[in-house]
Amino acid sequence: MRKILNYKITIVARSPKDIKGVCNALSFIEKNNKSLLKKVQKINGVLIRSIHSYDNELILPEKIWVCGTGTVRESSVSYLASLLIHESVHCIKYEQGSLNKNFRDEPVAYRAQIMFLKKYGEKREYLYVTKLLKEKYWKKNFISISKNENIKSTNNLYNYYKKYTSFFH
Ligand SMILES: [Zn+2]
Known about the structure:
alpha/beta, five-stranded mixed β-sheet, 8 helices, about 15% strand, binds zinc ion
């Protein structure tokens, strides 16, 4: 695994290409909106799993975002940047004492992501995330796959993080 520090965020991945992807997204945020970068810096680290997957999880209280190569490699720079914005809202909400019970923070996280895409992203990305918010995607996603599947996926991401905890200290 490789580790680099970029904008005070620790990025860990097997492939330099994946690290570069996250760095590009951070540069994109900095270039467009410096005050948003400050918020994104609430995320302490990004850990990219070597497997192709779109599963992702924000590990708290550590504020490490664990995601798969699918997310990093197949997202445009602006879309990956918007995902970081989304997760940074969860970090800020967590600092304010919210545990995101019943996904109550999702609308505000999605709205921040949508605002970013509206200004800096591609129109289809903006429309896509707007649709996710309208459909309350987080609820649908949670119910549609069986509960066990969802817990299994979350556990996998936590276990994966545990393996690489030392990279973030
Ligand atoms: Zn969220």
